Amino acid sequence: MLRRLRSCCSPSHGRRVLWSAVIALLPLPLSSPYAQTLASPPSAEQADPLDVGDMPDIGLDWPDLDAPATPLPSAAEEAAATGEDAGEADPTLPPLLLEEEQLAEDRSPSDSDALVSLDPSAPLRYRTTLDGLGDAADTTFHTRFDALSILKQGEGERANIAQIRRRGQSDVDLVDELLRSRGYYDSNTRLRFGVDPGTDPSVNAILGANPGPRYALRLVDVHGLDGSSPLGQDLRALFEVKAGDPADTDAILAATDKLRLGLGEGGYPFADVREPVLTVDHQQRDAVLNLGVETGGFRRFGEIKVNTEAPFDARHVGVISRFRSGEPYNQSDITDLNRALIATGLVSQVTITPEEGKNSETVDLAVSMAPAPPRTISGEIGYGTGEGARVEASWQHRNFFPPEGGITLRGVIGTQEQSLTATFRRNNLGRRDRVLNVELSAANVDQPAYQAVTAGLAGSFERQTNIIFQKDWTWSLGAELRVSDERDYYGSPPVARRRTYVIAALPTGITYDASDDLLDPRKGFRLGGRISPELSLQSGVFSYIRAQVDGSYYLPMGDRLTLAGRVRLGTIVGASADRIAPTRRFYAGGGGSVRGYGYQAIGPRDLNNTPEGGRSLGELALEARFRFGSLNQFGVVPFIDAGTISPDPWPSLSELRVGAGLGLRYYSNFGPIRIDVGTPLNPQPGDSRIGVYVSLGQAF
């Protein structure tokens, strides 16, 4: 709250003198009789200048924009409240004319004649116009006026001239108060009427403002911000308002919030920034700003304490945090810890309170966590033209082995897949976002290229990225042991054969992400690589290496258009395609590959038109992502994809298949929902003419 002190030497017109006399009688804690205090200052994190939810106290109650609109009173209700007859004009004024002596010079004779000709009791359409504001009003000013104006609230309904006049007189005071909040303390606003003639005449309620001079700050006196912090920060520089700046309520409040934030970010958890006091001198047409601060002392992180109901202990909270004991206190680290605790899925609500540490140089954190339900049961039933019917169910306990040791059991029954999988996952192992995965699985899979019965054990240790903290570098180290009985076709004519493989692999991957968003990138690039040395036992022991590189680039072309491209290259060296198990070969086609083609449909085929897969992979994709809608919440995406599979170690352009199509996007608050429809441009025999793909997130 900003207290605004006005001197007694204010302008002497009747309304201002009466207002000053009333204010002078109010008991205030300061010696001067006129004060303004800014309560509920806007948050420094608010980036939207149109946000009117938390605005300075300029003597009016700001509206709750989420609440339902309050109906305007009827003419009878307004008349009862004011003692007037709603159907008659004020007998003390000429018909339809407001403040006649003041407005005569501002109204043309044609307007006067038109006003006199109107029926004072007739319901009229009207509109509201602000005039004369010039540079005194910005977008925020107009947004606030529209939210608070009685005239604006009633523009959609007809009203008689008496009702319009009363609303306008209320808005006159509103405009003056809004101008004073921006430093125009000598503003004077008047109401006048214009008429838009026609078969259905309407009234133009004009609020003509004369802002007057803008007051400046003659002196800015800040107490308690002397010297520098132990980190070398000039404390006084944290409050950016200085002498000579406009006496602007919004700017002073924003600077006060920025000071609070700067002290919290700079190691002062117990800082107390009092409300600024603005003393206004009408005679000098300037103001003096006073601000008192108690820093509470510079602190470093001490101990972490948790409540007894917490799903994990203080030590694990320390693992999740991005700070360590002894580091300078930083409020951003507290905000980040709060979000990360919620993101575990084991906490429904978190409160982190700084407390006095063991000495005057430390601050302890009291972390109170309300546990969330740790178990989840989910299911899915679906049908697709490419994969047939499918029923999936899973059960998960996210804290089966505390802390954050989760178990997931998953089963699938479908036309092309029947499988059981048990997964152990340990999140935040030793350090934030380090994850250990162990998976035991058994499956019977019938894909277009092969039929396989497999059982395997796999594990990985990885550094993950997420929407809370999108990381530049991520990596994964893994090991896999799998036994697989697989059927494919060979020879001419093709003959079905079944072979059993025992495969051991050490997959390793690394990715660099320089894009601006995890689910909906609009600029930047991504580059990743994966390599897997594998040992296979089938009619003897042999080895080979699988390697794959993926890259994507995103180029913004304005606010609504983004051009996106993707390249993927893969190769297998060390063994022929026929010796490599069908489940370990490369395939292309489908929603995450080349749209327009079916899953695994691209590449060499046998005489039965069955895909064979290959030792090399090449893919290219281009998209133009165009957004539309009032909030850019919808999108249309023309795309063209191409891909090739070859039995040789390097991709072959002779087998290149191209698909094109159009996608639709809905940009929800949890990521884009996409529907893509594609068609093959150079199909092989048996390829469908249309492919439809639905998914969450962009294609790449």
In a nutshell, what does this entry contain?
This protein has 700 residues and is mostly beta strands.
What are the main properties of this structure?
Ubiquitin-like (UB roll), 17-stranded antiparallel sheet, extended, 5 domains, 40% strand, 700 residues, five-stranded mixed sheet, 10 helices, mainly beta
Largest sheet: 17 strands, antiparallel
What is the CATH class designation of the largest domain? Answer: Mainly Beta
Average pLDDT reading = 84
Structural class: mainly beta
From the 3D coordinates, which CATH architecture of the largest domain would you assign? Answer: Beta Barrel
How much of the sequence lies in strands comes to 35-45%
* CATH homologous superfamily grouping of the largest domain: membrane protein fhac: a member of the omp85/tpsb transporter family
Distance between the termini: 49 Å
CATH topological fold name of the largest domain: Porin
Principal-axes shape call: extended
What is the share of helical residues? Answer: 10-25%
How would you summarize the topology of this molecule?
Elements: E1 3-6, H1 14-24, H2 75-82, H3 100-103, H4 109-116, E2 125-131, H5 139-148, H6 150-153, H7 161-181, E3 188-196, E4 202-210, E5 216-223, H8 249-265, E6 272-273, E7 277-281, E8 286-294, E9 300-306, H9 314-320, H10 331-343, E10 347-356, E11 362-371, E12 375-384, E13 388-401, E14 405-414, E15 417-426, E16 434-446, E17 451-463, E18 473-490, E19 495-505, E20 508-513, E21 524-537, E22 541-556, E23 561-573, E24 616-628, E25 634-646, E26 657-668, E27 671-680, E28 691-696
Parallel strand pairs: 1-7, 2-4, 5-8, 9-11
Antiparallel strand pairs: 3-4, 6-8, 7-8, 10-11, 12-13, 13-14, 14-15, 15-16, 16-17, 17-18, 18-19, 18-20, 19-21, 20-21, 21-22, 22-23, 23-24, 24-25, 25-26, 26-27, 27-28
Helix pairs in contact: 5-7
